[in-house]
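4.2 Preliminary Data

To establish feasibility before requesting continued support, the project team ran the inverse folding procedure on a target of 450 residues. The structure was first converted into the token representation described in Section 3, and no sequence information of any kind was made available to the design step. The complete token record follows.
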């Protein structure tokens, strides 16, 4: 099987590009690890330059008086411009990623901006404008992201206006757009020689993975790719002759299903909210954590969702694939595993169902530290365990038609804070690894241990 990627931006602009499909639609991946090729500047103690004036249609360079450091605690909110909580929550999670703080906190990013990208470098400049204002702002103040919102609407019309939108959909556009604006086309990785499908089938899965990963990097090589991009491998095994075929695709995030039996409506969210409210009135913080632990003891875990995502699937009937050895359509077993792990792993909980247009409000227990992804990896136990620590997540409250997004992020001071548009407050974190909010975790951001 040969993996082919379709750009998110190409779907918007009608232009051909080699970027990221939705993992939902094409659940397959790519592999191999590469050493970082992007300069990481140490910015502590040095002045930085912020891009200003995009909201008024002009661009000027203003020297900031405050250096940006990965240890800086940023407690600056983002103003809600009218149902823009979906954008604000996603931005706060991206802003709080250490690689993002380091890369965009220095000046090296300017050398990577490409004027020949679909957005002519405008998106990355608008992103940096808001990022710098947030990182250098006064604690518990707020920033107006109107300039960035206007740029997003220009290049993604479906995200324009002030209707409710999906936080993960915005994040997909943002990462893909930033990757295009920073795409290192001039010094791209050499594209491997084209191989026919029958030639690829003779290669090991590891060699096939490297082949497809290098082809991807030959068209998509940027700081964003290096930081957020991973690779999935889809294995299809013929039930008749056990012949295996592989397919690889890159991903920015994994859309993970929730196990069956989850509650719909507001039942679970309401009960957690009640415990939180009672806890704030009657309990100390330790007691409140215990209450949260008790309330969520029967909840679905993130590992349950990941097991479902990678569980084998039987392909039969009209969907039977053609076995390359049998030369016939055969009943087969398909399984998806992660082949290449990115430094920042983004996990999207599939809470919204279509066309039924309902929301699954199942509480998900997710670890703050030591998320072990080895069970869901193609590689054997001799490889280093891919361990991840949570640093941020978005939360969705309410229904599909009338909901609200917030972000909860771990800041440089080691504490957790909830970013509710303009308002920033310290978050309640359970000792057992449960982060308490009156709602449902929607997109989780994990940082890989080094």
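Position-by-position output of the design step:
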């Amino acid at each position: 099987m040969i993996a082919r990627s379709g750009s998110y931006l190409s779907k918007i602009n009608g232009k051909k590009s080699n970027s990221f499909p939705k993992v939902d639609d094409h659940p397959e991946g790519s592999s191999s690890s590469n050493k970082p090729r992007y300069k990481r500047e140490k910015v502590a103690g040095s002045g930085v330059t912020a891009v200003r004036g995009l909201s008024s249609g002009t661009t000027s360079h203003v020297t900031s008086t405050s250096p940006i450091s990965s240890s800086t605690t940023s407690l600056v909110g983002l103003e809600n411009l009218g149902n823009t909580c979906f954008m604000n929550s996603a931005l706060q999670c991206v802003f709080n990623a250490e690689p993002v703080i380091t890369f965009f906190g220095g000046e090296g990013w300017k050398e990577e901006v490409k004027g020949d990208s679909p957005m002519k470098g405008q998106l990355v400049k608008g992103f940096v404008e808001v990022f710098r204002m947030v990182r250098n702002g006064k604690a518990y103040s707020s920033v107006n992201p109107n300039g960035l919102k206007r740029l997003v609407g220009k290049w993604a019309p479906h995200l324009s206006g002030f209707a409710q939108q999906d936080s993960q959909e915005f994040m997909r556009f943002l990462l893909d757009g930033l990757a295009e604006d920073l795409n290192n086309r001039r010094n791209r990785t050499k594209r491997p020689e084209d191989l026919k499908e029958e030639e690829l089938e003779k290669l090991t899965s590891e060699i096939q993975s490297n082949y497809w990963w290098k082809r991807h990097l030959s068209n998509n090589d940027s700081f964003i790719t290096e930081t957020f991009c991973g690779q999935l491998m889809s294995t299809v095994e013929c039930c008749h002759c056990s012949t295996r075929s592989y397919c690889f695709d890159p991903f920015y995030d994994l859309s993970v299903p929730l196990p069956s039996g989850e509650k719909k409506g507001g039942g679970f969210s309401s009960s957690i909210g009640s415990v939180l409210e009672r806890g704030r009135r009657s309990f100390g913080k330790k007691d409140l954590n215990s209450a949260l632990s008790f309330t969520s003891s029967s909840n679905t875990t993130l590992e349950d969702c990941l097991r479902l995502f990678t569980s084998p699937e039987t392909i039969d009937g009209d969907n039977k694939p053609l076995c390359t050895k049998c030369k016939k359509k055969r009943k087969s077993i398909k399984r998806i595993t992660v082949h290449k792990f990115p430094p920042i792993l983004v996990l999207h909980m599939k809470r919204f169902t279509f066309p039924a247009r309902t929301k699954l409000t199942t509480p998900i227990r997710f670890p703050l530290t030591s998320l072990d992804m080895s069970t869901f990896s193609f590689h054997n136990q001799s490889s280093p365990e891919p361990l991840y620590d949570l640093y941020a997540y978005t939360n969705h409250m309410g229904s599909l038609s009338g909901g609200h997004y917030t972000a909860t992020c771990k800041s440089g001071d080691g504490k957790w804070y909830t970013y509710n548009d303009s308002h920033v407050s310290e978050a309640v974190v359970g000792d057992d690894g449960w982060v308490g909010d009156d709602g449902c975790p929607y997109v989780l951001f994990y940082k890989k241990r080094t």
